[in-house]
Write a structure and sequence with these properties.
It is built from 16 helices and 12 strands. With 433 residues, it is of the alpha+beta class.
Length: 433
């Protein structure tokens, strides 16, 4: 008999006989349950010729099973007053339902069913091909997508983080129904999944329900992984993209460690200080970055009209992005010189005490805002398991608090080096974007 053990205060963990990881967090604050199923598959698992498969498979799981035809799925959730969605990322794909606690069996039954019984009817595959190609074409009208795709491809020449999650047009045009179905049957297995629930339930009773729906599902072989570590970057790389519009954009991406690395929390504080607090949660709100160094150095001096930053929690080393919209009265070269000066200043002097404290507080506040609801609590249960473990989430605030000025200066000196970065510039050619 599967039993629960306490992973942290009020957090329970077990693994079913078929390998499904179960994480439960009872929260009796409202009569609601948020139910998430996470699969350890994303764009990093796609070989050349199959890019975009994970995202396309996500679409297909909304097209129904014999038990839950496509039209029934959405109506079944909406009738309960619940909502649902799904997301594909580089390292994972996830599906969730947040609904009244009395209807949680619907979510369990639905996700257990479509883990194994999604239809992938040929006509639906072709319909989604059109949808996804149209989505891809829409992105290609956006300068920042075009520039970001080139920067990411230049940053990763070996590792499968090389390509965008949506996939390359050549692959989207040629992948077959059998290609997609094989991807689904390879990775959508209980032993490659994490089930995370938070809300109003008794853990033992909930485990009984989970076993009822999931425990008889057959595990599969250990899924293949594309183990292709990116070799060290030995010099700065630069890319230019020309396209319609009137605005110059600059993207600078520095190679940084994975989320499980001890330096990740120091980099979070650095990002908060330098470009503004980073939101790791899909549902979290934003906080102004007007106190960040790069905003003050570029926007307040009219070299830029906007500055942003991004640092992602990933399974493998990824990127710290800086995204700059150049002011009409300035130019990319001026912006890049100012950026280099600000990086050098941080490396040489480190942050001032009050500046460090503000950066930490902002990072903590953004984390808190993104952890309040029952949906967010269930999200973090599974999300942290995709690249680390629940302790990573539980220790988030203490580890941010422990970051010192010397830590920020050290990671700036270590990771914000020219040979670790890719510089991308979007050169507008006029006309409509």
């Amino acid at each position: 008999m599967t039993s629960l053990h306490m992973l942290a205060p009020n957090v329970y963990h077990t693994t079913l006989a078929n390998g499904l990881t179960v994480l439960l967090k009872p929260l009796p604050t409202a009569p609601v349950v948020s139910h998430w199923i996470w699969y350890k598959v994303g764009s990093r698992d796609e070989p050349t010729g199959r890019t975009g498969a994970s995202h396309w498979v996500e679409h297909m799981l909304f097209k129904g099973t014999p038990k839950f035809p496509a039209g029934v799925l959405d109506k079944a959730i909406s009738r309960t007053g619940g909502y649902w969605n799904a997301f594909t990322y580089m390292d994972w794909t996830t599906y969730f339902e947040t609904l009244p606690a009395e209807h949680v069996r619907l979510a369990l039954e639905l996700e257990a069913d479509r883990m194994v019984n999604a239809l992938f009817e040929p006509k639906e595959v072709e319909s989604e091909r059109t949808v996804i190609l149209s989505e891809r074409q829409g992105h290609e009208n956006e300068p920042l997508f075009l520039l970001g795709e080139e920067v990411q491809a230049a940053a990763f020449r070996v590792h499968p983080y090389h390509h965008e999650i949506i996939g390359d047009t050549a692959d989207l045009e040629r992948m077959t129904r059998d290609d997609l179905y094989a991807h689904y049957r390879t990775y959508y297995r209980p032993n490659n999944a994490v089930l995370a629930l938070a809300g109003a339930f008794d853990p033992k009773s909930m485990l009984t329900e989970i076993r009822r729906y999931f425990e008889d599902l057959e595990p599969g072989p250990e899924p293949p992984r594309l183990e292709r570590p990116e070799p060290p970057q030995r010099g700065e790389r630069r890319v230019e993209v020309r396209g319609p519009g009137e605005t110059f954009f600059v993207q600078v991406a520095y190679k940084v460690p994975r989320a499980a690395n001890a330096d990740f929390f120091s980099l979070l504080v650095l990002a908060s200080l330098f470009t503004g607090p980073v939101n790791l949660n899909l549902f979290g709100s934003g906080i102004t970055n007007h106190t960040s160094r790069l905003y003050q150095a570029l926007v307040e001096t009219r070299q830029a009209v906007g500055v942003g930053g991004s640092l992602s929690a990933t399974l493998d080393p990824y990127l710290y992005w800086m995204i700059i919209t150049v002011h009409p009265d300035s130019d990319p070269d001026t912006v890049l010189r100012t950026l280099a000066d600000e990086v050098a200043r941080l490396q040489e002097q480190g942050p001032r005490p009050e500046e460090l404290e503000r950066a930490r507080r902002q990072a903590q506040a953004l984390f808190a805002y993104g952890s309040e609801s029952i949906t967010n609590q269930a999200f973090w249960l599974g999300y942290s398991a995709m690249f680390a473990d629940y302790a990573w989430f539980a220790e988030f605030l203490p580890r941010l608090n422990a970051v010192t000025a010397d830590d920020v200066r050290r990671v700036a000196q270590t990771y914000l080096q020219p040979h670790r970065r890719v510089v991308g510039v979007y050169l507008p050619t006029g006309g409509q974007a």
